[in-house]
Amino acid sequence: MTDRVAISGAGVVAPIGVGFEAFGEALRAGRSGVRGITAFDCTGFDTRIAAEVDAASFDGASWVEPRKLVKLMSRAALFAVAAAAMARRHAGLNPGDVDPERVGVSLGAGGMGPTDLDLLATQAQAFTESGHVAGNGHWNIPAFAQAFRRLTNPLATLRGLPNLAAAQVAIQQDARGPNNTLTTNCTAGSQAIGEGLRMIQRGDADLVFAGGTDAMVNPVGVIGFSLLGTLSKRNDEPRRASRPFDRDRDGFVIGEGAGIVILERESVARARGARVLAELAGYGVTCDAYRITDERPDASGASRAIRLCLRDAGVSPEDVGYVNAHGTGTTMNDVIETRAIKEGFGPHAAQLAISSTKSMVGHMLAAAGAVELIASLAGLTGEFFPPTINLDAPDPACDLDYVPQTARPARFDAAVSNSFGFGGQNACLLIRRW
Amino acid sequence: MPADPPVVEDRGLQDLVPRIIAEVLVVPAEQVQPGSRLIAELGAESIDFLDLVFRIEEALGKRIPITRWQRYLERRFGNGDLSEVITTEVVRQFAEEEAA
Fold first, then answer.
1. Per the CB < 8 Å rule, is A67 touching B26?
2. Hey, which end of chain A has fewer CB within 10 Å, N or C?
3. Residues of B in contact with A146 (CB under 8 A)
4. Given B1, B51, B66, which is nearest A153 (Cβ)?
5. Is A362 helix (H, G, I), strand (E, B) or coil?
6. What's the gap in Å between the CA of A67 and the closest CA on chain B?
7. What is the Cα A272 distance to its own chain's centre?
8. Mutant choice from B26, B55, B68 vs A, greatest count of A C-beta within 10 A
9. What ipTM was reported for this prediction?
10. How far is A422 from A184, CA to CA, in rounded Å?
């Protein structure tokens, strides 16, 4: 019998709370983290709302030692480093408990440094100084390059490399084992945790810092997703903007932050007397191989991920009490996901409590799957179903139990967390009571 | 494009270089003494010197390719172990040469 894999700690930096306890309480209270964007002046933007991590509740630098490493971190990397440190503390993990060469990192990450505000400002200034265009009407790249070279700190590039968030986590945590970064966007956080599970199962590591991070509340992120037509424009009612499964939904709200869990081989967790929160028991991953942003209308890619996940965990649909939906609040996702849950769970779908915590934290992109697994963990350990807030009147095509409006006290033994991304990548994770 | 005018006098380097070092390495200003060894004592790693030279370049309003710093070190210390020899004073002397 192979060792099970325990989740022994969780760290989270989310728009509604920093730290596992604060985050769990905010979920239970059904708090929205969406508000008018404060990070930059978004006058004239179609979408002027987001779920930001509040500077007042998050002092990123306080989690970094030595402090000088902060300048090498993108906002997303800083979120990840802080979440990893919180997870370690939550797990009661002390230096010497686990051989550093057997400690891995598996992190979901997206676009990084070049989109941080100060770096965008440097690019804009260089562009202005270059005189915009040469005489022939084309961009004067040599003049831009000269200005850009003079204005750009040489270390800026290091903030833009997506693998460096995982490297920074490794430096802070002395994790000398495998170190992987997954860049599958909306699926990355879930996939990183699933691949972390595999790292332990195949014997490459005994303990893994696994999760995701993203920080796209910047002009490039907001305009980019806005141009794709995926963002809510409910600017006048920020807290009501993210409304998955509701018939009046009009897109997702960008969120930012990070979530990291400590995955641990059972024998290692037992040897150090760890308090185990849950077992990470299943992982299913597929690709639609269909279209870039459209999901397969029959939901076969997503439902297959659910079935693979259940099979991997060796459970039947009836064993699962809660599903944390991908639930973006886009027209397409919520209908197709409902279909996927019905296909994946069969008749038991009607008995499931399903919710989208994106209604509260927005779509945290590469962090989403990780933060949502932590939301499931908060529900499992705290005995409640997190709600789908703002679900006033469900879309008739979304006819399951989405735990509307308020959290529901509930004891359940297993939960599945779904993530379905642009590009058609689908990943599901299953946790169960230890 | 004309170079930016220098924002410091040469004499100001006495104060400016320690201040830049403290900023780059995020250490308290009082720890940066003329004889402080940047690598051995203040925790500098190789990329910190990119940052340091960039900030000296900004302060002097003059382009300083990193290769000039590397050649300066070679000239002074050959291929020896740099962790013991790069001090605040060494950086100040480099900045002074560049400002001249």
1. yes
2. N
3. 1
4. B51
5. coil
6. 6
7. 29
8. B26
9. 0.80
10. 8
State the DSSP code for A248: T
Give the residue on A whose Cα is nearest the Cα of B64.
Answer: A150
Give yes or no for a contact between A280 and A197, defined as CB atoms under 8 angstroms apart: yes
SS3 A226: helix
Q: Token pair for residue A108?
A: 């979901």
Encode chain A (434 residues) as per-residue pLDDT tens digits.
578 999 999 999 999 999 999 999 999 999 999 999 999 999 999 999 999 998 888 999 999 999 999 999 999 999 999 999 999 999 999 999 999 999 999 999 986 656 788 888 898 898 888 876 656 667 788 889 999 999 999 998 888 889 999 999 999 999 999 999 999 999 999 999 999 999 999 999 999 999 999 999 999 999 999 999 999 999 999 999 999 999 999 999 999 999 999 999 999 999 999 999 999 999 999 999 998 888 899 999 999 999 999 999 999 999 999 999 999 999 999 999 999 999 999 999 999 999 999 999 999 999 999 999 999 999 999 999 999 999 999 999 999 999 999 999 999 999 999 999 988 999 999 999 99
Task: Inform me whether the C-beta atom of residue B26 falls under 8 Å from chain A C-beta atoms.
Answer: yes
What are the CA-CA distances from residue B28 to residues A117, A281, B25, B69 (Å)? Answer: 27, 48, 9, 25
The number of residues in chain A equals 434
What DSSP line would sit under A323-343, residue for residue?
Answer: EE------HHHHHHHHHHHHH
- Size (chain B), residues: 100
The dihedral formed by the CA atoms of A371, A373, A376 and A380, expressed in degrees to the nearest 10: -120
| A132 carries an active-site annotation | no
Identity of the amino acid at A210: A
Residue A409 Ramachandran class (φ > 0 left, ψ -120 to 50 alpha, else beta): beta
Alpha carbon distance A341, A357 (integer Å): 16
Residue type, A218: N
Closest by Cα among A15, A200, A37 to A117: A37
Going by C-alpha positions, the residue among B89, B97, B93, B94 that lies closest to residue B36 is B89
Q: Which residues have C-beta within 8 Å of that of residue A55, sequence separation ≥ 6?
A: none
Which of A66, A67, A154 comes nearest B50 by C-beta?
Answer: A154
Measured distance between the N- and C-terminal CA atoms of chain A, rounded to whole angstroms: 16
Both tokens assigned to A151: 């204005």
